[in-house]
Design goal:
This protein is an alpha+beta fold and 280 residues long. It is 18% helix and 37% strand. The strands form three sheets. The chain has a six-stranded antiparallel β-sheet, with no helix packed on it. A six-stranded antiparallel β-sheet has the order 12-11-10-7-14-15, with no helix packed on it. It has a four-stranded parallel β-sheet with strand order 2-1-3-4, with helices on both faces. Strand 14 (226-229) and strand 15 form a beta hairpin. It starts with a strand and ends in a 10-residue tail after the last helix.
Amino acid sequence: MPNILLIAHRSKPEAARTADAIRPLLARYGAVEEIPSGDEPLPSALAFDLAVVVGGDGTLIGETRRLVARGAPIVGVNAGRLGFLAEFDVADLEKHAPLVFGATPALRERMLLSIEVARVNGECEVGVAINDAVITAGAPHRMIELSMSVDDDHEGVDITGDGVIIATPTGSTAYSASAGGPIVHPDVAGITITPICAQSLAFRPVVVGAHETISFGLRRVNEGTCVVLDGQRFIPVGRGDRVIVRRNALHAKFVANPSNRYWDALRSKMRWAAPPSYRA
C-alpha cells in the first residue's frame, strides 16, 4: 500500500470539508499522513509515494513548487472556483480511485520554468514557476524599459511598457491569455512571451522553443518592479539586474482524471470559442 501525503488548504471551509470527505477513501488505499498547506519546505524525513492536494488551482500551483523536487505524482482535488488544473472532484476521485491509487496511474507531465535573477552586486536569486514568471512594473506604475534576447540573438529587442509575461503551456490559459497571448496545448514544448501593454503595435506575443534561454536586462525600473512567480512569490529587481528564464530540468507529474479531456475543460471552464449570445 502506498504512503499518501494529504495537503489541504484548511483555512478555506470548502477545502477542509473536501479533505474530510476524501480521507476515508484515501485510507482504504494507503497509509495517510496530512500536513498543512504553506510555504515551509517539506521535512526531509517525510516519505510518500503520492501527494493529494485539496484546494483551488492556486493552492495546487503553490504546493507543486513545494513537492516537485520529490518526484512523486500529485493528485489535484478541486475545492476552489475554477478547477482547471486540479482535475478531480470528490465524485471523480471515488469513481477512479483504483486507477489513481494503483501501481501505474496515468500521468500528465507539465513543463516548469527556472528563473534566475542576477543582480549587479553579484548576488543571485533563483525560483521555479509552474504557470508563469512576470516582470511587472510595480509602484509607482510608470513604464519600464527592458532589453530581451532569445538564445544566441545578441542584438535582441527592447520592450517599453508595463512588463512581460513568460509562460509555460500550462500557464498559457492564465495571465498570458488575459494579456492577449495564445493558448498553447500542454504537450507543446514551448515558452510564450507576452508583453504587457507594450508601447508598440508591432510587439506581438511569440512562442519560442522550450530549449531556448530568454534573457532580460532591466534598463529603467520603478521602486516596486519585481519578478512574480505564479502570482505567489515576489522577487524585487533593480536597474542593471538581469532575469534569465529557461526550461527547468524537472517536470511536475499530475495524476490524470480519465473523465477529463483538455478540450472539454477548455470549452466548459474557459469558455473557449463560445459563440455570441443571440436573442431567440
